Amino acid sequence: MNYRFILPALVLGICISCNNSTDSNTAAATTTTADGGQSTVEDNESAKDIVKIAAGSKDHTTLVAGLKAAQYVDVISNAGPFTVFAPTNAAFDKLPAGTLDNLLKPENKDKLRSILEYHVYVGVLKDALMSDGLTYGMASGQNITIGNKDGKMTVNGINIVATIPASNGIIYVTDGVLLAPAK
Fold it and tell me: What range(s) does the FAS1 domain occupy (predicted)?
């Protein structure tokens, strides 16, 4: 019997078998997230994405509620990269009475989404790119203007109070809600 042909055939069979089991495991993982999108992926090992950081913050429950109401959670959970200017709950409290409740209604989903998109830049704006007077186009199609004087950063005149890196970008916590200029 010639063993020169049996050994390579055996190794090839094992490789094919291993590849098939890996593909079926990958397919199983994919089917568990197919119904829910990126935000439903459970991963307690990796760095948290922007939505997971916001969801874990007691100061951003209003923002998270808005992301959910606008069906924008999966978008901001994706790989990005994104820069998100994230208003605190106190920032939303500064809006005129009833504004937020009105925006969270299902019939105002598109308007809410547009406001949220005005808080999102596609790309990462690290501190070095946050020079005074620079303007950036946001996901909504409108521009914001950065202020940076004496180490104090602002966006459209609203204070940036913290910077938080995320696995899919960066979060700048703001003490106000960005409102786009009228078109």
Answer: 47-178
The pTM for the full model equals: 0.74
Using CB atoms within 10 A of its CB, is residue 1 exposed (0-12), middle (13-18) or buried (19+)? Answer: exposed
For 98-136, letters b (16+ CB in 10 Å) and e give: eebeebbeeebeeebbbbbbbbbbeeebeeeebeeeeeb
- pLDDT score recorded for residue 43: 55
Alpha-carbon distance values, 176 to 22, 73, 163 (Å):
48, 21, 15
Residue 91 pLDDT greater than 70, yes or no: yes
Question: Kind and range of the H or E element at 120?
Answer: strand 120-122
What CATH number was assigned to the domain covering residues 47-174?
2.30.180.10
- Please state the domain extents for the chain: 1-35, 47-174
What tokens appear for 136 in the block? 């950036």
Q: According to the model, what pLDDT value does residue 37 have?
A: 56
- Spatial contact of 177 and 92, defined as CB atoms under 8 Å apart: yes
pLDDT tens for residues 102-116? Answer: 999 999 999 999 999
Asked if pLDDT for residue 41 goes beyond 90, the answer is no
pLDDT band at 88 (very low <50, low <70, confident <90, very high): very high
